[in-house]
Amino acid sequence: MDCIRIAEWNANGLIQHIQEIEMFLRDQKIDVCLISETHFTKETYIKIRGYLVYHTVHPSNKARGGTAVIVKNELKHHEETNYQTEAIQATSIKVQNKYKQYMITAVYCPPRYILKKEDFVKLFQTQGEYYIIGGDFNAKHWGSRIIINKGKELYKAGAECKCEFHSTRKPTYWPTDQNKIPDLIDFFVTKGVSNNYIQVEDCPDLASDHSSVILTVSNAVIKRQIPLTLTNRKTNWLGFRAELEKKITLKVPLKTPEQLEEVNKFNTDIQQAAWNNTPMIQRRNMGYNYPKEIRDMVNMKRRARKKWQHTRSPEDKTVLNRTGNELKRLIKEMKHATLNKFLSELTADKNTDYSLWKMTKGIKRPKMQIPPVRKEDGEWAKSNKEKADLFAEHLFKTFQPLPRLTNKETIPQIKKKDRRQIKFVTMKELTNEIKIT
């Protein structure tokens, strides 16, 4: 399997969404689905064709809280010990991919409980060395409108356990109360999985007061698409101006519907001129160009592993461990040298395009929330298409032609001979007239 698609969703009661979740799993080709707030009890049982379901109930065995993991039958995995407290419920499975095993966990943290850093650290320590945790943490921090104490404590725990946080930076919680504003409280926490192999996307297919988030883990580096822009920092503005001067004619009157079509041509000419004078910026390849010494050591380690797997002797195991440690040391030294060289070349002047300030800005820049937009009926526009349609409708209603001043088709023109000469007045006469009035 080249990649695993993992979805997380707060169902707010899974039983009522069984048919919906079945269609979602097949349409989105989901391998593992992490569910929060299942509202299951020990007597609850569900079956989804082609999938296995593992779940953890609330300690009180009442229909509230709880988590579940829905996993494909064909995915090699096994269930792990569940995490079950009043403040945190979690369901875990261990999955074997092409290179290593890692834990995949669904988590739910009820909002009423105050959790400290130690509580989250305790959860992370049960997950092993490599894991992916997804669910409703009710901890606002990453891309949320505000930062609460639970979010700060989770951030401290993640920093201590060397975790990474992944979200879409878009709201995932959509309250039914229109006075409440949507926010982001569902996201993923990972450890031991490089960001280059992860892609996160939102999906509004499932209906509850939460939207789902899908995380794709690939065995190969995922190349993210560069967002399309009309211009960038390398745009040739002189060429842009010269091209527009040749194409655009500003002497066309805009009085008839046919003449209004010139507006579309005007917009098209601007876009085309911008594209023609804007080169594509290629992203830098951040991968390491490993030297021959390291590549030779990798081949040596492969031969040592193959020999040990064949003989299973302690001596060959010692050689394999020694080779592996030497390879780690060489890679670590190379990464340190590469980083030191990169940092030493950063400057604050124009010669390197102000690389120092750009790097500092990238580190300090906070993750901004992408807010939702409310429709006229009070609902929220969640997807990009809904937002675009809403803006288009608003602009269409706003920019309407002015009403005619008269019902007649044409306004009679005053003949030149009927125009009367305006008599000049002095400032004193004007002042006196104003006072009288």
Automatic annotation (TrEMBL):
The lineage of its organism: Eukaryota, Metazoa, Ecdysozoa, Arthropoda, Hexapoda. It comes from Lasius platythorax. This is Endonuclease/exonuclease/phosphatase domain-containing protein. PANTHER family: DOMAIN-CONTAINING PROTEIN, PUTATIVE-RELATED, ENDONUCLEASE_EXONUCLEASE_PHOSPHATASE DOMAIN-CONTAINING PROTEIN. InterPro entries: Endo/exonu/phosph_ase_sf (IPR036691), Endo/exonuclease/phosphatase (IPR005135). It comes from the Eukaryota. Residues 9-210 form the Endonuclease/exonuclease/phosphatase domain. GO terms for molecular function: catalytic activity.
